[in-house]
């Protein structure tokens, strides 16, 4: 997946968020405007608390959740949205 979000990708993210009813104001400042950041995030999930990532290693498996990031246009609050939950990943990537 490219790190450069095309306008079509941004529009798909916005449409998916609207479809699932994710249209509430910012939880920090109440602003109703958000921007889709130009790139993707991967939230790492591990089975250890020490923060070390060892994919398949001795401390247990690690995997990432491909995500879209939105920022409040007033206070900068970031919200993370899993692309798989929004139906925006190819089928083979949602089972990870």
Structure at a glance:
With 96 residues, this protein is an alpha+beta fold. The protein is built from one helix and three strands; from the N terminus they run H-E-E-E.
Task: Reconstruct the topology from this structure.
Blueprint: H1 7-19, E1 34-46, E2 62-72, E3 78-82
Antiparallel strand pairs: 1-2, 2-3
Explain this structure.
Helices cover 14% and strands 30% of the residues. By secondary structure, the chain is of the alpha+beta class. A hairpin with a 5-residue loop joins strand 2 and strand 3 (78-82). The longest helix is centred in the first third of the chain and has 13 residues, at 7-19. The two termini are 15 Å apart.
Question: Characteristics of this structure?
Answer:
3 strands; 3-stranded antiparallel β-sheet; 1 helix; globular; alpha+beta; about 100 residues; single chain; about 30% strand
């Amino acid at each position: 997946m490219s790190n450069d979000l095309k306008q079509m990708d941004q529009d798909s993210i916005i449409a998916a968020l609207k479809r699932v009813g994710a249209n509430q104001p910012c939880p920090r400042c109440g602003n109703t405007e958000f921007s889709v950041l130009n790139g993707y995030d991967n939230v790492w999930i591990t089975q250890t608390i020490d923060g070390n990532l060892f994919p398949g290693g001795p401390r247990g498996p690690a995997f990432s959740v491909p995500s879209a990031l939105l920022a409040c246009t007033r206070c900068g609050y970031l919200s993370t949205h899993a692309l798989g939950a929004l139906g925006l990943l190819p089928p083979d990537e949602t089972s990870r």
